[in-house]
Amino acid sequence: MIDLHAHSTVSDGLLSPAELVMHAANSGVRVLALTDHDDISGLAEARVAAAEHDIALVNGVEISVTWKKRTLHIVGLKVNPEDAALKSGLASVRLGRIERARQMSLGLEKVGIHGAFEAASSFAENSILTRMHFARFLVEKQYAKDAKSVFKKYLVKGKPGYVSHQWASLAEAVSWIVASGGQAVIAHPGRYQMGSGKMHELLEEFKNLGGVGIEVVTGSHTPEQYPQYAQLAQK
């Protein structure tokens, strides 16, 4: 089995890099990519664990991107974690995450939810702050029954905890990945709710910048969508 999109506690996952590798091995995964949001600091730990569990580890990352006022995610596979431009670019994106988190907390305060930034930070510990950390806090405090409900009620566009943020540009993300020797892939395109015209515009620009693929089989897609995105990937 191959899994080329996985997160650890370095971003919004529930397992440490080593625990994630062990879980993957126990689940029959033989090739695993660790693709934490905007952070590659977990790769060293994952690589040690991968050697112990006879798993081929692919160095990866998932970069947050703003494209035509939409937030997209671009996965980088086979990146060089020591590449200076990649490290610098990711550091700038992470700083933006902190500012976004503060603004999210202010929005939640306006509807009577206090201490969200501090609580989300405690869930994140030493990892980067993500919306999932806010979701865990809100579920713990019983503002919603689960993370999916939290996003729908508080964290999507038009809700009090939503903050529009300017992430890296598509060109920047792809250039960081490619310059480090990696391959750029559009993550879960089905999430972006684009019409066919806008999706083709994105794919054309992405390809011209050096992107090489899109995710087809992912938990964000239904089985009925697999053929649709497989066809797009082959164009």
Characterization of this structure:
The chain has 235 residues and is α/β, with parallel strands linked by helices. The chain has a single domain (2-234), classed as Metal-dependent hydrolases (TIM Barrel), CATH 3.20.20.140. It contains nine helices and seven strands; from the N terminus they run βαβαββααααβαβαβα. The protein has helices spanning 17-26, 43-52, 84-109, 116-124, 131-140, 147-155, 170-179, 196-209, 226-234; strands spanning 2-6, 31-34, 56-67, 70-77, 168-169, 183-186, 213-214. Strands 1, 2, 3, 4, 5, 6 and 7 form a seven-stranded mixed β-sheet that branches. The protein is globular. The protein starts with a strand and ends with a helix. The mean pLDDT is 94.
Beta percentage is 15-25%
Q: How much is the radius of gyration in Å?
A: 18 Å
Report low-confidence residues grouped into runs of 5 or more: none
Task: State the helix count.
Answer: 9
**What's the overall average pLDDT, rounded?**
94
CATH topology: TIM Barrel
Distance between the termini: 25 Å
Biggest beta sheet summary: 7 strands, mixed
Give the CATH superfamily.
Answer: Metal-dependent hydrolases
Order of helices and strands: EHEHEEHHHHEHEHEH
- Tell me what the CATH architecture is: Alpha-Beta Barrel
Tell me, what is the CATH class?
Alpha Beta
Sheet/helix structural class: alpha/beta
General form: globular
How many discrete domains?
1
Q: Compute the number of strand runs.
A: 7
Helix percentage range: 40-55%
Q: How is this structure best summarized?
A:
By secondary structure, the protein is of the alpha/beta class. The protein has nine helices and seven strands, in the order βαβαββααααβαβαβα.
